[in-house]
Every structure is written in structure tokens, then in C-alpha cells.
TrEMBL record:
Record InterPro entries: Puta_zinc/iron-chelating_dom (IPR005358), UCP006173 (IPR008228)
Transmembrane stretches, start-end: none
Organism: Erythrobacter aureus
Superkingdom per UniProt: Bacteria
Record's protein name: YcgN family cysteine cluster protein
One family name in Pfam for this protein: CxxCxxCC
Amino acid sequence: MGALRDRFWERPLADLNAEEWEALCDGCGRCCLHKVEYEDTGEIEHTNVACRLLDTQTARCTDYRHRKAFVPDCLRLTLKIVDDVSWLPSTCAYRRRADGLPLPRWHHLLTGDREGVVRAGISVVGRVVSEDMAGPLEHHVVDWDEDEHDDEAAA
Ligand code: SF4
């Protein structure tokens, strides 16, 4: 792991060290939600059902270090695949930097406030149910993108 360099988030993603890469995440928890993918069309719909390891009140993984042991298909976002993950929210720091966009203005790296993502309405905190309680995913399809159409939220 390297040190965090001054304003590292303005550098290209390929320039970031491992610690800077991790620090870029805003902790919204959106990538920890299940999706429904239709085999015939490849269409993906979002749900409000969270991975069983996600704490739904903090949007934090309860066992980040060992998550792959419990959830083998947990997505590990890397530089190689960031362009291929079409369902990342438009506010996701990785997606935005891959597209050459600045971080959202509420991002904790700009403000020092990790609650900004909650106030901006982007975090899943208190808005999702654990997969252990949810029942069929098809009953939980939601349109998270509604918030993102508000430019204030994305930027
Ligand atoms: S969607 Fe992006 S910013 Fe949000 S938790 Fe996942 S990797 Fe982090």
C-alpha cells in the first residue's frame, strides 16, 4: 500500500496506488445490491435487496476482508473491469473518474464528511433489505437512477 498523495483523485485511475484506489469509494453501497438479469434480453434491473454481509444501517460490509470467502461472486472493482460494469451508478467515483469526470461535490475526499453521500440521497443506508429477509428478488425491483437524474446529486 502507498501513501495518499495530495489530490490523488484528480489523477488518472491507472496512476493510483492501492490505498488511493480504495479511498476513492464513497461507500454508497450500491454495488452491494442484487440485480435481476433477464437471460433472454441481457437487461439488468436494480433491486433494493442487499448482500447478506452489508449492514443496511451503515452501508458498510460487515466482513470486507473476508467477503470473498462468504460471497464468492462479490464484485471486486478493478481498473480492468471498471468500464465493463454498466450498472455502476453515475455518481460512483470509479465510473466518474474512468469517464474523466470530477468527483461529486459531496464526496468525502472533497469535504472530509463521510455522511455527505447519505445527505445527497445516494447511499443505500436505511433504504434496503437484506437478502436473508427479502424473498423473491423480482418483488424488489427499484429505479435507483431517479435520484441520479438530478444533476445536483451527481455533481
Ligand atoms: S458504487 Fe462505487 S462508490 Fe458506491 S460503494 Fe460501489 S464502488 Fe463504492
